[in-house]
Design brief:
Layout: H1 3-14, E1 18-25, H2 30-48, E2 53-61, E3 64-72, H3 79-90, E4 93-94, E5 99-100, E6 105-111, H4 115-122, E7 142-149, H5 158-175, E8 182-195, E9 198-211, H6 217-233, E10 242-245, H7 255-258, E11 261-262, H8 267-270, H9 291-308, E12 314-321, E13 330-334, H10 343-353, H11 358-365, H12 396-403
Parallel strand pairs: 3-6, 9-10
Antiparallel strand pairs: 1-8, 2-3, 2-11, 4-5, 7-12, 8-9, 12-13
């Protein structure tokens, strides 16, 4: 970690008042629509052929969805049907909302995976030196980060946790008919106040909620605060919390009509809300040979188990790869001064107990299954509503025992 970053982390922990903000979006946001289409394609192909190689990108704008990328598989996807099913499930069922699953155009441009990439993934460079002729190499170079912190039961930063809750409530009250005038597009933003590194209250909540044209602004504000924000943020709201709903006053034009969408353009929403670093690679539409996805999941798993074991209050793991090579070129551990044992000891424990080779990650988490579309909205991490293998803390006891500490992590009640 750079010296400046350590200084920032230390000042955050020491300051008597720091405000930190994270953002989320609903499944009707055009970028998230694209993520869901890309992961739906991936899931369908994995269902038919678990060894499918998929790098599926989606773009959308007014009345149109484009599906493109590199795919090698023995499976087949009816893209017209699949795209329309996803758009319908999101809630774009009427042209009056700006998008309609029955009438939108679907255009595809798919080609096979590059044979040069395929040969490096199928037979890692290391294996050519006699390690294992079937060793999987990394699908690309790059660095990936995983993070955990003891601020919530999910071991996620509180700002992104609350932002997801608000965004999800927006969708829930729309789908249940509680606020039937809402439309699928929406965004949330939550600012949490910290005192000496501990979250103490919600300072501001920003909501953008797409709605029918005839809804009075005052009613919209009252409804969103009472039915969405307060239930989502709970006791962290106080008399000083401020609310900002639809900053321009109206949000009737949304979805792909209001803004173009693209797969992988909400990577901070997908991860830690900006609280931890990000290597830059997106997740959705990529099979697990792409370490952008699988290694990020693995790094999150390891960081979460370190914190769950009580070895640190916060932990960031970085791994880096080169295309065609199985073993990462580096593994780094940073606990920001919160460790119960030294960082180099934690790094040694990780290297002893966890294998970061792509094939090992795929096997450990069973990543050749169709489990990915469910992650394409409301975050890939900290999901108590989903049984995601990289969110388990089944290694915490082993870490704790190996480190020789009996301390267990304690988290807020939520």
């Amino acid at each position: 970690m750079e010296g400046g970053d350590l200084a920032v982390a230390s000042s955050f922990m020491a300051a008597d008042r720091v405000l930190f903000t994270s953002e989320s979006v609903t499944e009707g946001h055009p970028d998230k629509l694209c993520d869901q289409v890309s992961d739906a394609v991936l899931d369908e192909l994995l269902r038919q052929d678990p060894n499918s190689r998929v790098a599926c990108e989606t773009a959308t704008t007014t009345g149109t969805v484009f599906v493109l990328g590199e795919i090698t598989t023995h499976g087949y996807v009816d893209l017209q049907r699949l795209v329309r099913d996803v758009v319908r499930d999101i809630g774009y069922t009427d042209a009056a909302t700006g998008f309609d699953y029955q009438t939108c155009g679907v255009i595809s441009a798919i080609k096979p995976q590059s044979p040069e990439i395929a040969q490096g993934v199928d037979h890692a460079l290391e294996s050519r030196e006699g390690v294992d002729p079937d060793e999987l190499g990394a699908g690309d170079q790059g660095m990936m980060f995983g993070f955990a912190v003891d601020e919530t039961p999910e071991l996620m930063p509180l700002p992104i946790t609350l932002a997801h809750r608000v965004a999800r409530r927006l969708a829930d009250v729309r789908k249940r008919g509680e606020l039937a005038y809402l439309r699928p597009d929406g965004k949330s933003q939550v600012t949490v106040e910290y005192a000496y590194g501990k979250p103490v209250r919600v300072d501001k909540v920003v909501v953008a909620a797409q709605h029918d044209p005839d809804v009075p602004y005052a009613r919209l504000c009252d409804d969103v605060i009472e039915h969405v924000v307060r239930p989502a943020c709970g006791g962290l709201i106080d008399a000083r919390t401020t609310y900002l709903v639809n900053g321009t006053g109206a949000f009737t034009i949304g979805g792909p009509m209001g803004d173009a969408g693209l797969t992988g353009r909400k990577i901070i929403v997908d991860t830690y809300g900006g609280y931890a670093r990000h290597g830059g690679g997106a997740f959705s539409g990529k099979d697990a040979t792409k370490v952008d996805r699988s290694a990020s999941y693995a790094a999150r798993y390891v960081a979460k188990n370190v914190v769950a074991a009580g070895l640190a209050r916060r932990c960031e793991i970085q791994v880096a790869y080169v295309i065609g090579v199985a073993h990462p070129v580096s593994v780094n551990v940073e606990t920001f001064g919160s460790g119960a044992v030294p960082d180099d000891r934690i790094r040694a424990l990780i290297e002893e107990h966890f294998d970061f080779r792509p094939g090992a990650i795929i096997e450990r988490f069973s990543l050749r299954r169709p489990i990915f579309r469910q992650t394409a909205s409301y975050g890939h991490f900290g999901r108590p509503d989903l049984d995601l293998p990289w969110e388990r803390t089944d290694m915490a006891d082993a870490f704790r025992a190996a480190a020789g500490t009996a301390r267990k992590v304690t988290t807020p009640a939520g």
